[in-house]
Design brief:
By secondary structure, this protein is α+β, with helices and mostly antiparallel strands. Helix content is 28%, strand content 31%. The strands form four sheets. It has a seven-stranded mixed beta sheet with strand order 2-1-3-10-5-13-8, sandwiched between helices. The chain is globular, with a radius of gyration of 16 Å. 37% of the residues are buried.
Length: 194
């Protein structure tokens, strides 16, 4: 296995994220996991994610670990995700600002339905990519662009690039899973834990 750690960032990362990343890479090194860290700074997150995925795949990553620069995650997150042996598995977390809600969507036809489970493995429709592991084969099955913003005429809104990616996986019969046992925090006005 070769892990590509992919971090889209703007100009800076949160101190809590830097600490989590340090603990994670220390653990990976102690466990002799081959990994490379990829960080792209930019203001268009869909473009950053496409660039990061391309970079990680060019470096022969077998798995891509997506970490947003405003997340706190446990140092054993890779082990937990790998244990499930899923094409796409993520942790659930809260939105950054009130009203605080799960970023895991259960049903593509009703985005008000969100996963609120506190434990277990759950198949869902889509989730934010703040902490997600994707097998490299997934990128060979999906058409480019892997990440994009999509306009919804019915709601007059744009979906995020992470929801776009999960929806593409859904339409190519690739399941997205949530490990609700993993404790994540999303740094906003305060660090929020579901």
């Amino acid at each position: 296995m070769k892990l590509g750690i992919c971090v889209p960032a703007r100009d800076q990362v949160h101190t809590g994220f830097a600490r989590s990343l340090c603990y994670l890479t220390n653990r990976l090194t102690a466990n002799s996991v081959d990994f490379e860290l990829h960080i792209v700074c930019g203001s268009v997150i869909a473009e950053s994610r496409n660039q990061l995925a391309t970079e990680a795949l060019e470096h022969r990553a077998t798995h891509l670990l997506w970490l947003d620069s405003d997340m706190h995650f446990p140092p054993n997150v890779v082990e937990k995700f790998l244990a499930h042996n899923k094409d796409i598995v993520a942790g659930n977390y809260s939105t950054r600002y009130a009203p605080y809600r799960s970023v895991a969507f259960v049903d593509s036809s009703n985005t008000e339905l969100r996963l609120d489970a506190k434990a277990g493995l759950h198949k869902i429709w889509a989730v934010g990519m703040g902490c997600m592991l994707v097998k490299a084969e997934v990128y060979k099955q999906l058409p480019k662009p892997w990440y994009n913003h999509e306009y919804n005429k019915d709601t007059d809104t744009f979906s995020g690039e992470d929801i776009y990616f999960c929806n593409q996986a859904y339409h190519h019969d690739i399941d997205v899973w949530i490990d609700a046992d993993i404790q994540l925090a999303h740094f906003g006005t305060k660090a929020n834990i579901l």
